[in-house]
Design goal:
By secondary structure, this protein is of the alpha+beta class. It has 11 helices and 11 strands. The strands form 3 sheets. It has a 5-stranded antiparallel beta sheet. Helix 2 crosses helix 3 (34-46). The longest helix has 18 residues, at 309-326. The N and C termini lie far apart (81 Å).
Length: 329
């Protein structure tokens, strides 16, 4: 038979899973009577665990939000999920400027785990290998991130102090539509109220964010992630490249993702069968184009270069090099 202390901890674990639990349900799970459940709840309250009583037909007990996190109970799989999430987040750069928070959170979880579980988890984490190498991450300030998240959820304007890539500083009023994590960086996208245009900002370049009075309406169907990706594809870089490629969206996106290129259907010429001949117009804005010939070759699809002529020269040079290599004995 479980000892009373063990049942109290089991009760806490049940309440931590969320929602309201009826006395009958808790009594059945613990194998005790209803009055015993009430006694156990009293013991948790004596330990400053914020347990709340819910009245009514579907009433019972639930954990109330408090200033302190109540004792956290994790089974083996839950502890593994948390530690793997912390490790993956640190690896992917999904953290804030307080880099030590990830490490201290991991250490706290390890410290309270039973030794046999901690050893097994440490063995897994020590033996875990990644195929990519971690890079230098541009992490945002936690206070800025949380303020912007609140602004997105409650549709509140927010004032930000921003430094652009050229070092120019400005203060802007932003109607934030969404926060996006992409390739080890955080972005917020929305409308810059001063110029009444949609803009995307890197969070690590925001020095301060504070909520403003009022509210705004976000546009229906707005996709923050797609907006960020399309912004990369249409950024003001040195070269503007326009191609027509014969193939499916999936085939082209395999080599030219949305963060690199924008796609649109190209209407077929007179007499062409639209179903048999599907050409897509591909547009890119890039700083360098010397990498594009190899990408076009790897697509293995018919293509037409509309601009620039420099790209046509580079593709021809690559074809000649490959031909000379193929003829070597």
């Amino acid at each position: 038979m479980p000892r009373p202390t063990g049942r109290v901890l089991t009760l806490l674990e049940l309440l931590q899973s969320g929602g309201t639990r009826t006395v009958a349900e808790l009594a059945d799970r613990l194998g005790v009577e209803g009055r015993t459940v009430r006694r156990y709840v009293g013991q948790l309250i004596d330990l400053d665990v914020p347990v709340e009583s819910v009245r009514g037909r579907y009433g019972g007990y639930r954990l109330a939000p408090g200033y302190r996190l109540p004792p956290l109970m994790l089974n083996d799989e839950e502890a593994l999920a948390v530690l793997l999430g912390l490790a993956a987040g640190r690896r992917a750069g999904l953290t804030t400027t307080q880099h030590t928070a990830n490490e201290t959170a991991s250490a706290k979880i390890r410290r309270v785990l039973p030794k046999h579980i901690a050893r097994r988890l440490d063995t897994l984490l020590d033996s875990l290998a990644f195929t990519d190498q971690p890079g230098a991450f541009d992490t945002p300030d936690a206070a800025v991130l949380l303020t912007l998240a609140d602004a997105v959820r409650h549709h509140r304007p927010v004032s930000i102090r921003y430094t652009d890539r050229d070092g120019r500083r400005s203060e802007r009023t932003l109607h934030a539509y969404g926060i996006v994590a992409h390739e080890s960086r955080w972005y917020v996208t929305g409308k810059d109220a001063r110029i009444d245009e949609e803009r995307t900002f890197r969070l690590d370049r925001i020095a301060d964010a504070r909520a403003l009075p009022g509210s705004f309406e976000a546009p229906a169907g707005f996709d923050p992630a797609q907006r960020v990706l399309s912004g990369f594809a249409t950024a003001d870089y040195r070269h503007q490249v326009t191609l027509r490629i014969h193939g499916t969206v999936e085939q082209i996106r395999a080599r030219l993702p949305a963060s690199v290129a924008s796609l649109e259907d190209n209407e077929p010429a007179s007499g062409e069968d639209h179903e048999a001949e599907r050409w897509l117009r591909v547009e890119l804005r890039v700083e360098q184009i010397d990498w594009l010939p190899a990408v076009l070759a790897s697509l293995d699809r018919p293509f037409v270069i509309e601009r620039p002529d420099e790209l046509r020269t580079l593709v021809t040079a690559l074809a000649e090099r490959l031909t000379s290599y193929a003829h070597r004995s």
